[in-house]
Every structure is written in structure tokens, then in C-alpha cells.
Write a structure and sequence with these properties.
The protein is mostly beta strands. The chain contains one helix and 25 strands.
Length: 339
């Protein structure tokens, strides 16, 4: 009896091992022979076609559920199903117009492969601009209101065997002024043969206070680089700047005499001192006081709720008086709900 039981247990174990082995090899199995495609040096602006071969080494058809590329890469087509023992492909396009230098882009392939349902493939390239903007295609302004500021870049062609010309420069920011001129003689960058152009971008005198964000488009006669873009960003600071630009108390209890502070900064670069000579609020529920942080440069204005202030909503205006010739008064909204 004992021998019979032992034989049955051994036979069952062998069956389990055999079925597990069969199950392990069953189903689809995705294999990508070349997971990384290095496209070498590519001219900026070129659209590169890439094909990743996919094999199904399983026993059942392989279903490709989805293919998701990263930024700058577009999947043109892929085989939705690959028969057992068959081959298929994922075809992609890489648009290099917004890239420069070494890049690496990945594509995620999702399938019904039970052992490896997701797989990433990679496209690498060294994008070489045909027309370069030096030191980089980026201009930053950290300017002060009413004071002129100019930033410059140099445009050169990487192919010195062909003459090229900058034909036009335009900006989508209305208060940016652009100029272009051809460099010659000692002005030329020694390590960059070929034609070179200087593009100057200036803030107009009436540029508004606030952020600067836009694009300068440089048109050339080069057939492979008809347009080159330069990003522009930065800020124009007020000559006399107030932070914050509005005082919000929210819902507060008047008896607690809550207060809020703001800072007045003199941003003038000509060395002129600007003093804060006084501060008042046009609502008797508030009182204001001024303290000096740095004489002629930085001041703090404190606005406090009076203990006997009338309850309810209050929308007032703080007037800050200064010695500045252009901004003798600064207006700041004050809001509170007193209880």
C-alpha cells in the first residue's frame, strides 16, 4: 500500500513539472534584436525614419496593444499582430527641428507577452545645426523700466563651403526691436569660418513692466535652414517696485489688530536715491507706517487694522508717497473682511 502511494505521488509530481514546463513556453514572446538605434550625426531639421524589427518567438500570436513615444518622436505605424514564429515592426519618425547636440528618445511598446508585457526601445542621434546661434539660441532680459537694454547673438553657418545670408529678423514681442549686420575683419569669431551675422535685440523705451516671453525668428537664404528661432525671456522691473502689489487680509477680527507688510524697492541703476516719505490709507479702518530698511533703496510699509474698525467688507487704497521724480505716488489695493 505504501509503495503504491509513493508511486502515485511521484507520478503526480512529474506531471506537474511537465505541465509547468509546457506552460512556461506557451503564449507569445516578444524579441527585439536591436533595442537601441544610433542614427549618428543628423542635420538639424531633418525628419529621420526609424524601424525596429520585432520577432515573436512564442507559440501564440503576439498582440501589440499600444506604442507610446516620448516628445519629439512620432510613431508612423506598427504591426498590431505578429504570428507565432513571425516578424513585424514598429516604424517611427524623429523630427530634429527643435533639438541640438546629442539626444536620446524612447518608445514604449506594450504587448500581451506574459513574461515581458512592456519594452522600451531607444533612438539616439547627434543633431548638428546647419545654422548656429551663438553663444546659444536664447536671450534673457533682466531690465529696469525705461532703461534701454540690448542683447546680442551671432549667427553662423556650420557649412563654410556655402555662402549664406540673414535676410530678415522678426520678433513676436511688440516691444522688442531687432537689428542685423554682417560681421567682418576682427569682429569675426576665429574658430567659425564662413559668413557671420550679429543680431541685436533691444527693449523699446516703452516696454511694459512685467515678464518678457517670446521668439525672435531669423530668416536665412540657406535651403536647409530657412528659419532659425531664438527664445526670449526675462522681466522688466519697475523703477520703483512694490511687493506684494495688493494687500489681502481675508476674514480677520478687528480687535486682534492684524497687520500686513509690503516692501518698496528703488531699482534705478543711475544711483539716484528714492525715499518713501509717507503712507496713508483712504479708509479709517486702517493705519499705515513706514520704516527704513536701506536708506534711499528699500523701505517697509506696514498696514494695520484698527481695533475699533467697523465690521464688514473693506476695499481701500494705500497711497505710498516717494521722492521719485517719475513715480511720486504708488497705489496699492487693500482688501479685508472685518468681524
Amino acid at each position: 500500500m505504501l509503495r503504491t502511494t509513493s508511486k502515485l505521488i511521484a507520478a503526480a509530481a512529474c506531471c506537474l513539472i511537465a505541465s509547468a514546463a509546457v506552460a512556461q513556453g506557451a503564449g507569445p514572446k516578444m524579441v527585439v534584436p536591436e533595442k537601441i538605434k544610433d542614427m549618428g550625426t543628423v542635420a538639424q531639421g531633418a525628419v529621420v525614419d526609424i524601424t525596429f524589427a520585432i520577432s515573436n518567438e512564442g507559440t501564440e500570436p503576439l498582440q501589440i496593444k499600444a506604442v507610446r513615444p516620448t516628445c519629439g518622436c512620432t510613431v508612423a505605424d506598427y504591426d498590431r499582430e505578429i504570428a507565432a514564429g513571425g516578424t513585424g515592426a514598429v516604424k517611427a519618425k524623429l523630427d530634429t527641428k527643435d533639438f541640438s547636440g546629442p539626444i536620446s528618445k524612447s518608445i514604449l511598446i506594450m504587448t500581451d507577452d506574459p513574461t515581458e508585457p512592456t519594452l522600451s526601445v531607444v533612438i539616439k542621434a547627434n543633431v548638428q545645426p546647419i545654422v548656429e546661434v551663438l553663444p546659444r539660441p536664447l536671450i534673457r532680459f533682466n531690465a529696469v523700466q525705461r532703461e534701454q537694454m540690448t542683447q546680442k547673438v551671432v549667427v553662423v553657418a556650420t557649412d563654410a563651403t556655402r555662402a549664406f545670408k540673414v535676410t530678415k529678423v522678426e520678433s513676436d514681442v511688440p516691444f522688442l526691436v531687432t537689428e542685423v549686420r554682417r560681421l567682418a575683419g576682427s569682429e569675426l569669431m576665429a574658430d567659425k569660418p564662413g559668413d557671420q551675422y550679429e543680431v541685436a535685440v533691444s527693449l523699446a523705451k516703452d516696454a511694459p513692466v512685467g515678464p518678457v516671453s517670446g521668439t525672435v525668428t531669423i530668416a536665412t537664404d540657406h535651403p536647409k535652414a530657412e528659419q532659425v528661432t531664438v527664445k526670449v525671456y526675462g522681466v522688466v522691473r519697475a523703477l520703483v517696485h512694490v511687493t506684494p502689489t495688493q494687500l489681502e487680509f481675508g476674514s480677520v477680527e478687528a480687535k486682534a489688530r492684524p497687520g500686513r507688510n509690503l516692501i518698496v524697492v528703488n531699482n534705478r541703476t543711475d544711483g539716484a536715491a528714492v525715499k518713501v516719505t509717507g503712507a496713508t490709507v483712504d479708509d479709517p479702518a486702517f493705519e499705515a507706517s513706514v520704516s527704513t530698511i536701506e536708506e534711499g533703496r528699500r523701505y517697509q510699509v506696514a498696514v494695520t487694522v484698527k481695533g475699533d474698525a467697523t465690521v464688514g467688507p473693506h476695499n481701500a487704497t494705500l497711497t505710498v508717497k516717494t521722492s521719485d521724480r517719475d513715480f511720486p505716488e504708488l497705489k496699492v489695493p487693500v482688501k479685508a473682511s472685518l468681524r
